[in-house]
Amino acid sequence: MWSNESRFQLHHADGRVRIWQKLHESMHPTCMSTALQAGGGSVMVGGMFSWHDLGPLIRVEQHLNSTTYLSMVADQVHPIMLMAYPNGDGFFQQDNVPCHSARIVQEWFQEHEGDFTLLR
């Protein structure tokens, strides 16, 4: 299984607005656009998949730090790995962002190393 998290912008927020207008249309209402404060918001989700299975899409409600990530691993990843690989022969891969490589997360994986193998 492989996992990752991603943040999605709810509205286009690169700061660039492109409008095609003719000279006499410069202040016409159809040539104006509204602006959203603070970019309009975003949503962060985490998920996991493998060749054989697809895990649930998990909405990350808080800032993603080592504690939040550890909760995701313990509550979501671990049960799915046990279900998908009941013999303990599964491999789990994550990237090395700081919250994944935090000491409390690595200690949790060491405590559960018989359930599946964490790829470095």
UniProtKB/TrEMBL annotation:
One Gene Ontology term of the molecular function aspect: nucleic acid binding
Annotated InterPro entries: RNaseH_sf
Name by which UniProt lists this protein: Uncharacterized protein
Gene3D superfamilies per UniProt: Ribonuclease H-like superfamily/Ribonuclease H
Domain of life: Eukaryota
